[in-house]
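Repro:
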Amino acid sequence: MQAQYMATRDKYSIDYQGLSNGNHCFTFDFESDLFALFPESGIESGEGKIEIELTKNSSFMELFVKISGKVELECDRCLDMYSQPVDFEGGVIVKLTDEQGDYDGDIIWLSPRESKLDLSEWIYESIILGLPLQRVHLSREDCNADALKYLVSTEPESEDF
């Protein structure tokens, strides 16, 4: 189990030690194995593409990331599974230093002695942040009709005064 965990993390890592300073591009796919690393996410499965533009300098790296794909979520309205599109664009700075700062989502601190940059958690968080707050089918008609029968209307009934 531990070997599978590490293999999954490696899949979402960049071996940066051998890279020269300058710009580099990486493309890889994300799959359901990413979400297995974070079982609390509520995402059963998903798939898509990750494109990374990495600019390496001597003491830091700058990454611009595009994520596109879809994930399977439970509808908050009817509890059936549905496919939610995912589109995210953002960046992160990786500081190569022995100092350890607090991870805040904008800066990743990495020791210069490490050879790989593990992006699995950052990619996962970026996908989660790209999801809508209310996770429902795109159209109410796509919801499970039997489940909708049990919903109670919260709209006040109109009263004539």
